[in-house]
Amino acid sequence: MRRSQKVSHRAPGIARRKRLIAAARTLLAHRDLDEISLADVARAARIPKGSAYHYYDDILDLYVQLIAVFGAEMLEDVRRPLRGSPGSWMQIVALLVRRGADYFNEHRAARQLLISPKTPPELKLRDRQSDKRIARLFETQIAERFVLPRSPGRTATFFRAVEIADLMFSLSMLEHGSITPQMTREAIRGVTGYLKAHLPPSLPRRARGSGRAGA
Q: How far apart are CA 136 and CA 90, in angstroms?
């Protein structure tokens, strides 16, 4: 078991871990992922190196906790109400994919930790758990406005669609160091194209005040 999962939840320990996570985020906003050690984070947080190793086994252990922070922020971003009245489920998908691109472009630390070519496989695997929750919110945002067909594997379909967007974002990072407008459009094309294989282009609009039947 990772040490960060065993540390006491006493107030001083919680405060120090928050400082370490905040310091790691600040460093990632200015330095490359593979240039940062746990000692660097401890120094930036003004916490003794020995104390940092009391809370985290290594820098990857700390990054796992930072991924959880980014995941929570992205979930809130996807959960935000949509502006206007989207005329199709495809427009909703486009809006949500653009939100994801905007989030990553605004947060270099998140780009480095989640979609950088240097992101270790262990961290990518952790991010998959956040993607599953994001996929469920994609599904929910559509189901609140349109009647989705019932399907036992529907949530898994949305998860794979989110992974397509993630792949396009990662390719953009590899080629450009950021998520470009062109690659954002490619992500939207990839996600909607895949979902069109599972959803009809036109879905019945949900009546106001009705429950999310089939959601």
A: 16
87-91: Cβ within 8 A, 24+ apart: 88/146, 88/201, 88/202, 88/203, 89/142, 89/145, 89/146, 89/195, 89/199, 89/203, 90/192, 90/195, 90/196, 90/201
Q: Using the 3D structure, point to which of 13, 43, 61 is the last residue of a domain.
A: 61
Structural domain span for residue 84: 66-196
pLDDT at residue 173 above 50? yes
Q: Are residues 82 and 184 in the same domain?
A: yes
Give the other-Cβ count within 10 Å of 94's Cβ. 19
The pTM assigned to this predicted structure is 0.86
Distance CA 154, CA 89 (A): 14
In a domain, 141, yes or no: yes
Please tell me the least confidently modeled range out of 119-128, 134-143, 146-155.
119-128
Which pair of tokens denotes residue 23?
A: 């310091």
- CB atoms under 10 Å from CB of 209, counted, come to 5
CA–CA separation, 192 and 92 (whole Å): 10
Whether 206 is in a domain gets the answer: no
Q: What is the rounded CA–CA span in Å between residue 15 and residue 51?
A: 12
Task: Give whole-number Cα distances, 198 to 1, 43, 72, 142, 195, in Å.
Answer: 40, 51, 28, 14, 5
Q: Would residue 162 count as lying in a domain?
A: yes
> CA torsion angle for 43, 49, 52, 57 (degrees, to 10)?
120
